[in-house]
Design brief:
This protein is of the alpha+beta class and about 140 residues long. It has two helices and eight strands; from the N terminus they run ββββαββββα. A four-stranded antiparallel sheet has the order 1-2-3-4. A four-stranded antiparallel sheet has the order 5-6-7-8.
């Protein structure tokens, strides 16, 4: 099983985590994963439908390559939109990842957190996300 993706806010005790991947038996694609968002005195966890969600890799790759230019991917969301990510950069080089997490696509509430990221974190995040979305070989 791949290591979880763990993204920590550079300024506060807030952590966004992707873990517990579930693979489709026939086509070896990621079918579900669990996402959690934890901060001081608040947390939420949700099982996320992941069909064709590997575009998250491109989202983070583009963020890592283009944050200096301010040309970041604006948004990524899971197929049922229970998880949404929004990237923002300003002219001073501040990078923000806004995470919106709902228990499912039919819920009327969601937990929102803004994680301040440092440029030095981005390549490591890309590596984690690529590993997570790659099914381990049967052994």
């Amino acid at each position: 099983m791949p290591e979880p993706v763990v993204i920590k806010c550079a300024e506060r005790e807030t952590t966004f985590k992707l873990f517990e991947p579930e693979w489709h038996a026939r086509n070896n694609s990621l079918q579900y994963f669990t996402a959690s968002l934890q901060g001081v005195n608040v947390s939420a966890t949700s099982r996320i439908y992941a069909f064709r969600s590997d575009s998250i890799i491109v989202f983070f790759e583009t963020l890592a390559k283009k944050w200096k230019d301010g040309e970041v991917p604006t948004q990524w969301w899971s197929p049922e939109r229970a998880l949404s990510l929004i990237a923002e950069c300003d002219s001073l080089g501040h990078i923000s990842l806004i995470v919106l997490l709902a228990p499912d696509c039919y819920c009327h509430w969601q937990l929102k957190a803004t994680l301040a990221l440092e440029a030095g974190q981005l390549d490591g995040i890309v590596t984690q996300v690529k590993r997570f979305w790659t099914q381990p070989a049967e052994g």
